[in-house]
């Protein structure tokens, strides 16, 4: 695992220390020592904490190569998020306290995450994901812990538009057996959310060893599975969650399914007709035409 100083945002600061002004070094030292405080600070608050001007803060993040203070905070947020325990998260600002409007806070954070996704979405990456989903004979969708919820959602949705979909639980060691027995050319999609279960890292490594195409959907550029992936889709969060956020990754999943379904090819139509027939014959779904409406 990476040490504190090896994370990109902290490494950026330490590598630039010698080139920074004395006030810039004060900022750098403060952030390295207090990342969990700094990540929640505005430029004004950080400047006051370090005894410098706001202009110094702006020049500091520019010197590190960030387009703006918001980009720097996002990188710092990703770093802080990977190291927080559950007790740490409970103590985060806004999680608890008298008068806290929980529903309002959750909605605002999800809206901010969706806005960030809208502004940063890699349309080309989505198109490549869809192309792989359309052309691969077999697809294995994997998640673990929180991310298994998303993996099941993606896998279940895929079964409505194509055949050959397998949903694997990363915490089940037989997932390795399934990947080892997968046909040549299989597509593997792993969904990984902070705090990144080790079993998913192992499965990503196994997939690469078997020369399978690996796509990763995650919530941060610091996700340790990215190094193994052929392609990656990132749904970043602007806030640090207690457990996790769902709207951004769910939106990516919906987009992939809609793009795939939009192709409306003959094979998909035949597949859906067979599914509907099986539902009808086995009375799987409520059918208003076959049920007595009277209580």
UniProtKB/TrEMBL annotation:
GO BP field: carbohydrate derivative metabolic process
Organism: Desulfococcus multivorans DSM 2059
Protein's name in the database: Transcriptional regulator, RpiR family
Gene3D superfamilies: Glucose-6-phosphate isomerase like protein, domain 1 (3.40.50.10490), Winged helix-like DNA-binding domain superfamily/Winged helix DNA-binding domain (1.10.10.10)
Alphabetic keyword roster: DNA-binding, Transcription, Transcription regulation
Residues of the HTH rpiR-type domain: 7-83
GO molecular function, one term: carbohydrate derivative binding
PANTHER family membership: GLUCOKINASE, RPIR-FAMILY TRANSCRIPTIONAL REGULATOR
Domain of life: Bacteria
Transcription recorded as keyword: yes
Segments crossing the lipid bilayer: none
CDD domains the record matches: SIS_RpiR
InterPro entries reported for this sequence: Homeodomain-like_sf, HTH_RpiR, RpiR-like, RpiR-like_SIS, SIS_dom, SIS_dom_sf, WH-like_DNA-bd_sf
């Amino acid at each position: 695992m990476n040490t504190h100083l090896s994370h990109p945002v902290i490494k950026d600061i330490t590598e630039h220390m010698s080139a920074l002004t004395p006030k810039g070094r004060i900022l750098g030292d403060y952030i390295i020592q207090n990342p969990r405080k700094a990540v929640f600070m505005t430029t004004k608050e950080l400047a006051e904490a370090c005894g410098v001007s706001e202009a110094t803060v702006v020049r500091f993040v520019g010197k590190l190569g960030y387009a703006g203070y918001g980009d720097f905070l996002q990188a710092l947020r990703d770093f802080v998020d990977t190291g927080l325990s559950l007790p740490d998260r409970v103590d985060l600002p806004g999680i608890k306290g008298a008068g806290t409007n929980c529903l309002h806070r959750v909605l605002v954070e999800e809206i901010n995450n969706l806005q960030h996704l809208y502004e940063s979405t890699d349309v080309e990456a989505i198109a490549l994901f869809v192309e792989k989903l359309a052309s691969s004979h077999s697809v294995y969708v994997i998640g673990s812990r929180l991310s298994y919820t998303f993996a099941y959602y993606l896998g279940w949705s895929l079964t409505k538009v194509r055949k050959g979909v397998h949903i694997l639980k990363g915490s089940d060691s037989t997932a390795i057996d399934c990947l080892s027995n997968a046909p040549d050319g299989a597509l593997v999609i792993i969904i990984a959310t902070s705090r990144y279960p080790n079993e998913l890292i192992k499965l990503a490594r196994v997939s690469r060893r078997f020369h399978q195409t690996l796509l990763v959907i995650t919530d941060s550029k610091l996700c340790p599975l990215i190094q193994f992936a052929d392609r990656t889709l990132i749904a970043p969060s602007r806030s640090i969650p207690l457990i996790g956020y769902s709207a951004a990754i769910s939106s990516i999943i919906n987009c992939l399914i809609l793009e795939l379904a939009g192709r409306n090819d003959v094979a998909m139509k035949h597949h859906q007709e067979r599914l509907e027939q099986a539902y009808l014959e086995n009375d799987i779904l409520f059918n208003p035409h076959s049920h007595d409406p009277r209580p």
